[in-house]
């Protein structure tokens, strides 16, 4: 039976995704700027809801007092509208924006900032946009916050453009709200203009602080160990000096050497008197003359060594708070015994 031959496909079943070369850093920075805007909206909404006051001017009632809401007149109107429609459940809008902030944070960490030497330069328009946001927010902050600046300028801080930006924002959003908006705008503008990521900066700063903290802790621990070592060394030196004084006035130990008495065998004496050349009859035991004579007993351990060993035993036991006194030493051919007297 003939088998049908099918042409083999050269296309792989799971093609590899193309390498992501040539993409710049701008998409990642724009995503980060959008995340900063989400954070600002979430914090701003929470601030205007928490600082709501019925005495502030609002659309549901008339009031001629200055708004005390952190969001200024706009924040007072918005908080009054949300609480009028939703009640306390208006805080769920804060939860909604908070969830968006959290998902944006996860998205930022899932997309690392590309470092590609073959990447194309980013758009010049985005660079100019970042520069524009930076200088506009800087002028607005200067006009709002730097009133006490002692530097003599032809105009108040911020210049004419700073007044045109800061005064309407301050009237609409209040002092705190306008400052918050301008700060987030400045952060986004700097990120686009100088081409860096605030998250990377925060990570590097955190890593540096952690490294500095670990080094300080290691230095502190080593300093404590050194002080403890010095205290222990001083204590040991005092103990050694005290013990050395006691050793110097100690009496010499008593050295008792066991007498070595060799009893001569009667057979040895009898065999010594035999003639030199004689026929040795067959016997079960060989003659004792084949053995070497017993050497005389000699001193194996000197008195100085016994004295030193005795003092060493006393010193080592004293290190474990066991005070003893070696009163005698009994050297033997193999084992030396020391007689000690424990302190009562």
Report on the structure:
The structure is a single chain. With 344 residues, the protein is mainly alpha-helical. The protein has three domains: 26-196, no CATH class; 202-249; 250-265 and 298-344, Threonyl-tRNA Synthetase, Chain A, domain 2 (2-Layer Sandwich). Helix content is 56%, strand content 4%. The chain contains eight helices and three strands; from the N terminus they run ααααααβααββ. It has helices at residues 26-50, 72-86, 92-110, 124-145, 159-194, 198-248, 266-272, 303-319, and strands at residues 254-255, 324-330, 337-342. It has a three-stranded mixed β-sheet, with helices on one face. A hairpin with a 6-residue loop joins strand 2 and strand 3 (337-342). Helix 1 (26-50) runs antiparallel to helix 3, helix 2 (72-86) packs across helix 5 and helix 4 (124-145) packs across helix 5. It starts with 25 loop residues before the first helix and ends with a strand. Mean pLDDT is 75; it is low at 1-7 and 9-23.
| SS class | mainly alpha
The rounded Rg comes to 49 Å
Strand content: under 5%
What series of H and E elements makes up the topology? HHHHHHEHHEE
Spell out the key features of this protein:
single chain, 344 residues, mainly alpha, Threonyl-tRNA Synthetase, Chain A, domain 2, 3 domains, three-stranded mixed sheet, 8 helices, 56% helix, rod-shaped
Provide a concise account of the structure shown:
The protein is mainly alpha-helical and 344 residues long. It is 56% helix and 4% strand.
């Amino acid at each position: 039976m003939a088998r049908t031959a099918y042409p083999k496909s050269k296309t792989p079943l799971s093609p590899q995704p193309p390498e992501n070369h040539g993409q710049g850093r701008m998409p990642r920075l724009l995503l980060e700027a959008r995340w900063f805007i989400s954070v600002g909206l979430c914090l701003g909404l929470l601030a205007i809801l928490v600082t709501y006051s019925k005495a502030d001017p609002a659309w549901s009632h008339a009031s001629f007092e200055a708004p005390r809401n952190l969001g200024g007149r706009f924040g007072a109107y918005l908080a009054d509208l949300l609480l009028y429609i939703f009640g306390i459940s208006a805080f769920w809008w804060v939860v909604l924006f908070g969830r968006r902030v959290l998902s944006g944070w996860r998205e930022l960490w899932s997309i690392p900032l590309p470092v590609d030497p073959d990447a194309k330069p980013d758009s010049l328009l985005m660079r100019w946009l970042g520069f524009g946001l930076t200088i506009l927010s800087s002028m607005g902050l200067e006009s709002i916050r730097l009133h006490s600046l002692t530097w003599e300028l032809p105009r108040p801080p911020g210049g004419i453009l700073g007044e045109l930006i800061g005064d309407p924002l301050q009237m609409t959003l209040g002092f705190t709200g306008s400052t918050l908006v301008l700060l987030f705008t400045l952060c986004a503008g700097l990120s686009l203009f100088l081409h860096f990521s605030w998250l990377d900066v925060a990570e590097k700063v955190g890593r540096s602080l952690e490294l500095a903290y670990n080094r300080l802790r290691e230095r502190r621990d080593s300093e404590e160990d050194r002080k403890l070592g010095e205290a222990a060394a001083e204590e040991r030196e005092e103990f050694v000096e005290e013990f050395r004084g006691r050793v110097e006035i100690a009496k010499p130990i008593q050295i008792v050497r066991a007498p070595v008495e060799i009893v001569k065998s009667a057979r040895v004496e009898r065999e010594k008197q035999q003639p030199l050349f004689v026929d040795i009859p067959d016997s079960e035991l060989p003659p004792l003359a084949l053995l070497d004579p017993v050497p005389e007993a000699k001193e194996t351990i000197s008195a100085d060594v016994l004295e030193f060993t005795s003092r060493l035993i006393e010193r080592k036991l004293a290190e474990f708070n066991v005070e003893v006194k070696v009163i005698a030493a009994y050297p033997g051919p193999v084992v030396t015994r020391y007689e000690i007297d424990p302190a009562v």
